[in-house]
Design goal:
Helix content: 10-25%
CATH topology: Rossmann fold
Shape: globular
Number of domains: 1
Largest sheet: 7 strands, mixed
CATH superfamily: Vaccinia Virus protein VP39
Order of helices and strands: EHEEHEEEHEEE
CATH architecture: 3-Layer(aba) Sandwich
Mean pLDDT: 88
Bound molecules: S-adenosylmethionine
Number of strands: 9
CATH class: Alpha Beta
Structural class: alpha/beta
Low-confidence stretches: none
Length: about 140
């Protein structure tokens, strides 16, 4: 069976390469619902922007077929992104809260994968978060 995949946001290609049937959708996830349409829904570093997370997660779960997967990478958060003259408010949740909400929607939630900052620059530079977790991948299945 060839799975139907939906990637939300701007750059899902890296995550879904290898799947032959996928769509990119730039809708607002808070209003996105395509009941029973996808086998996999993935979102990369986007949920920190989403204020109505429960509604968004419910939309994703509703849009999956039974046995479908939701895969989210989430940022370890600050309250805002600062670009100098302007900033963007963020709405961060700890990873466990995603797990709890998805489990409350009937999903089987896998153990989270914590991504560690291992960046080392050409001159040996390290960021302030070196060797700390900076993001988490959350995976859940909508049961059959
Ligand atoms: C940090 S960027 C990540 C983009 C891309 N996934 C990547 O990894 O390069 C955050 C993305 O979240 C998207 N976004 C913000 N709020 C959203 C919402 N309510 N529904 C869907 N996408 C949203 C923005 O359009 C932006 O593309």
């Amino acid at each position: 069976m060839v799975p139907d995949v939906v990637g939300m946001g701007m750059k899902p290609e890296e995550l879904i390469q290898g799947f032959s049937r996928w769509v990119r959708d730039r809708s607002d996830i808070e209003g996105f619902r395509r009941p029973g349409s996808f086998d996999i829904a993935c979102s990369v570093l986007t949920f920190m922007h989403v204020a109505e997370k429960k509604a968004a997660l419910q939309n994703i779960v509703d849009s999956l077929r039974t046995g479908g997967y939701v895969v989210l990478s989430i940022d370890h958060g600050s309250d805002s992104l600062d670009f100098g003259d302007w900033s963007v408010d963020l709405y961060s949740w700890p990873p466990e809260r995603y797990d709890d909400v998805l489990a409350g929607m009937g999903c089987e939630v896998s153990e989270s994968i914590h991504l560690i900052d291992s960046w080392v620059g050409p001159d040996g530079q390290r960021s302030e978060t070196h060797e700390e977790p900076i993001a988490t991948v959350i995976k859940a299945i909508k049961p059959r």
